């Protein structure tokens, strides 16, 4: 298996941090933009798309700031994905910060996927 590389993205979103947190941390919220369906049993989340199903373990969660998962197939590695809400102290601008890992030749594809999903999230939230 090739080594995965870490990448980070920032998406400004004009919405309250509390509302955004509901969409990044709950199965019902994530079902609206991240996957077709999301189920959770304790610390395990199942993400369902039309073609596939993946399980992730909840590594940490801090309301209303961030949530961090590790795919079960990456168990025993340092790979994870994290959704973090950042609020600028002065302007109060809200951004969704995403940290993820991908094989080096799949980073651009991963970024495009996140851009599409966050674009859908912004539409749902009524943010530009």
From TrEMBL:
The record, for SUPFAM superfamilies, names:
Bet v1-like
What positions does the domain START-like occupy? 1-126
Which InterPro entries does this entry report, sorted A to Z?
START-like_dom_sf, START_2
**Protein name stated in the entry:** Uncharacterized conserved protein YndB, AHSA1/START domain
Q: Which organism is it from?
A: Ulvibacter litoralis
Question: What lineage is on file?
Answer: Bacteria, Pseudomonadati, Bacteroidota, Flavobacteriia, Flavobacteriales
């Amino acid at each position: 298996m090739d080594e995965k590389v870490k990448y980070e993205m920032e998406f400004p979103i004009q919405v309250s941090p509390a509302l955004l947190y509901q969409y990044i941390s709950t199965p019902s919220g994530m079902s609206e933009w991240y996957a077709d369906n999301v189920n959770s049993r304790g610390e395990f989340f199942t993400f369902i798309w039309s073609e596939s199903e993946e399980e992730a373990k909840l590594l940490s969660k801090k309301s209303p700031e961030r949530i961090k998962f590790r795919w079960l197939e990456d168990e025993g590695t340092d790979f994870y994905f994290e959704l973090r809400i950042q609020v600028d102290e002065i302007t109060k601008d809200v951004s969704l910060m995403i940290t993820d890992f991908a094989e080096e030749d799949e980073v651009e594809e991963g970024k495009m996927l996140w851009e599409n999903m966050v674009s859908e999230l912004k539409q749902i939230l009524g943010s530009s």
